# Entry
Amino acid sequence: MPALSFSAVSKYFGDFSALKSVSFSVEKGEFFALLGSNGAGKTTLIHCLSGMLQRTGGEILVFGKDPEKESETTKKQIGVVEQEVGFDPFLSPLETLRTVRGFFGMPADEPYLEWILERLGLLEKRHVRGRYLSGGMKRRLMIAKALSHEPEILILDEPTAGVDIELRQNLWAFLQELRKEKGITILLTTHYLEEAEALADRIAIIRDGGIAVCEEKSVLLARRKRILEVTHEDGTVELLTLNHGENMAQKIAQFLQHTPNIQDIHIREPRLEEVFLEITSSL
Amino acid sequence: MNIIRLSTLVKKETLRFFKVWTQTILSPVMVAILYFAVFGGALSSRITEISGISYLAFIVPGLMMLQSTNNAFQNPSSSLTISKYHGTIADLMTAPLSALEKALGYILGGVVRGILVAIAILITAFPFVDHIFPIHPFWALFFLVLANASFAALGTIVGLWAKTFDHTAGISTFLITPMGFLGGVFYSVTMLPPLAQTLSLWNPFLYFVDALRWAFFNTGDIPIFIDGLVLGGVTLFLCLLTIFLFAKNWKLQE
# Structure
């Protein structure tokens, strides 16, 4: 049974169709990335899952149960990191985690909450009011909040939007450790392409409210183009796109024949960004 | 109903106002001191007694009711409006709190704040008014709890509805404050001309103040059972409406 299953999910805001028959599933223990540009429908889909919005049609199942019919059970299984940083400025990080955990009907567990804060580098600030935390700390507090009730599925809605590279790398490492140690299922929405590339097992690309592609990351990358990268002696770099299925040897030979002064040459897989642009521009 | 979930929400709602106690508890006490000073100095020589009660003693239950219900209203209305601003409304939506737990959590948070304000005002009155204490302390507490519950429920509904602080401020300015001031806090309804008396009977706050005044002095303008019926009826209606609106996710799932 999949951890999450979306079948023909649709959502209308008036006449506007924000989600168009979205279907995919996320297996237990999987790291799944939902990739899409701003306004593609990622947050709407997450909100339909978390109970922030009511879907117009289709079916969503969390370990086989519908969140709209069995919300008490399914809500406990999900931890959501909202895209917008949201915390009570009157409460300290520890008070915030106690509160959120209590909202799930779970008794206080200070060692567990302090473990989360420690892992996210917030332990020293656990008694400081939320309003006095830095931007990066507030972001980390959002993840701590989502984990406070020990969910089986962690939903992250663009968790690293607007954060610096160091913090982003730290969060990536934390998510990978979390998955390894706790076996937690992760659904990540992002428009940072390298994030999905670095973390996910499978990737779905959402565009204009519909799923354009849903594949294993390696398959998605492999079936796309190869890039021939040539570095000249003057340091300039020239790229040659090698399309899937064409005679690559002949194309490379022709290209090199007319390209003098080569310092370095290598063929690489396309970055997800290039794949993403190719897929979305061809639709 | 899950006790941990409910008590967590009540605790959060009380912790919030305790952390800014100078605004939430001290401020209404300051206002009460000003009322006692101004009304005691300026009016007590002109209005010596109402129904055999000194004027300053007469206004104590009204001031307690006025300030406590105002605070009971503000607690959930500001909390919910702030939650929408700060995005913490998502915590409420993504957690498995039932409609009953949400409604009770916000209402009880408001009641705790209102009762603390009422007690603080009563203590503030001690230096100004001799021997001021309810003759029926249990009924005084009971009426205060009901009145604060009704205003906290109203504050919760307004908090759900409001998109900005202008909305909550508007309700406070154009509904809550006039209702309070025209509800017999500073005068007996029998002192009004006949038309104003009839209009005042449509103001539920009149019954709230009269019930508490009865608990203090064993006398009032309206029979106590009518006060009790209005107070109980209004509270029940507003509390049920709050639960219903949470069950419908009114203004939340938009």
Q: What stands out?
A: Strands of chain B lie at 49-50, 53-54. Chain B has a mean pLDDT of 92. Residues 84 and 163 of chain B are 8 Å apart (CA to CA). The two ends of chain B are 26 Å apart (CA to CA).
